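Re: folding output
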Amino acid sequence: MLSIYLAFLEVSFKRQITYRIANWAGLFTNAFFLFFKVALFEAIYVGNEVVGGLNSTSAMAYAGLAQVLVMVIPQWGNIGVGEEIRSGQVAIDMCRPVNYYFLTMSKRLGISLYYVLMRAMPLAALGIFVGILIPFKNLAHIPLFIISVVMGSWIANSYHFLVETSAFWIENARGLKTLSTGIIYFLSGIILPINFFPVWAQNISRFLPFEYTINVPIQIYLGTGSNIFELMFFQLIWCLVMSAQCIWVLSKGENQLTVHGG
């Protein structure tokens, strides 16, 4: 069964890499926003040595890493589930001898792998070259960082899956999708580090899945997390919780599915 999911992952990766012009255009756009976000953080630190427990060097690296990971750990966009439900394509996928949720996640991980190679690594190299990113403070954290990125991607994609399955019950999920995107975009830490939030907001954020997508991998990279293994443990918990929720909602949604014409 695992080989089937790996095959879909491979196909998804190959399909993504065929759009070469879009690849270069996307890389240019990500590079632009890399420098744009760093410039904004530089303005924040004018006259300030430390903000939210981060010095200017760590804050610039945070902004750079957030942009490096933004496509690997998706914060916006459709993953295709909502459209497949509306078109009826989901019925065909559900007839396959595989779980639709894990099938979708294997495809999404294939896309994330593509973004690691074609976006994240070139952007990281550029960031290190111009002095935005700083090297790992502890090389032993590299495997932990990679695992954390995978779990962050799993949580983010599961969140999008969960939102888009609302199409089983409502005719058009675009409004809900827009709202949900705003929530994850703000609370994941991609706009501002969670450390910049008021203490009460940080306490609430710890009980939500969003900061475990982008913020935690960045903390591991920068070495600013108070307890790396505790952060990764909660990431793992959210992976399991989100997966269970998605599978449960999918099972309920199957009873609501109506495919016209057959």
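--- second protein (sequence, then structure) ---
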Amino acid sequence: MINQLVKSIRAKEAPIVVGLDPNLNFVPEFIKTKAFKEAGETLEGAALAFKEYNKGIIDAVADLIPAVKPQIAMYEQLGIPGLEVFKWTCEYAQEKGLVVIGDIKRGDIGSTSEMYAVGHIGKTKIGANSIAAFNEDIVTVNPYLGSDGVLPFVKVCEAEKKGIFVLVKTSNPSSGEFQDRLIDGRALYELVAEKVNEWGASTIDPETGYSEVGAVVGATYPEQGKILRKLMPKAYILVPGYGAQGGKGADLVHFFNEDGLGAIVNSSRGIIAAYKQEAYAKCGEEGYAEASRLAVLDMKEDLKQALVK
């Protein structure tokens, strides 16, 4: 899957992933009105609104970006109707030629991790059939349980030609409570980075030179990003925290390798709720999707400074 992602990044000249994290506060009133008229102010109605909202954004930006990243919690809040829209969103994005990064942050003991991996990037054996459930292309993985929690995902990656991004240094303010702790004089996130290299050693794509086991490193910590880029030369880095959380293109220079590759930067509400920003207010609610497109174009321009060394 890393091969497909790298090719798409090159073709579109945009190391950008759009986080499809719908929130009823972001969904334009005209979409909610229509959905609630059809299904009421219910979980089903909200899910219907999310579906229409996501479709508009995907249609508007699919030709500009290589990937989208739906955050499963935004859909789980709506129960089964929400999960149905999560699955639909993944499938629709793939139909549009996009790589789907399922932001699920799973990680558990071996047998449970295996089922998470099978459910999201693998296939379930049912009699004579092998059936994919959610079928994302790449998922995010929490390494807190160690190799027991990660290796089942790696096994499925190898079998299905899929990928994972392991949480290494996250963008949230309190990430340092654990991730920055020193162990034998080294930050914990550095030790996790070394394990990322180990876990991904068997999955390096011969064409791109990158591993199917990548890392999540927040844009809000550029100095740590510089260290981690050197520690994980073969790992692609998923960079959250751009835009709404404070990260900007100038901060991201060291997240990329000399080949201009090696990182893909996420923006969620900065794009999907762009119409609420002063810069794109002229689009109005009806033009929310066009505002998202303009925000992607502006982000692409901003990131150029990170790609020129």
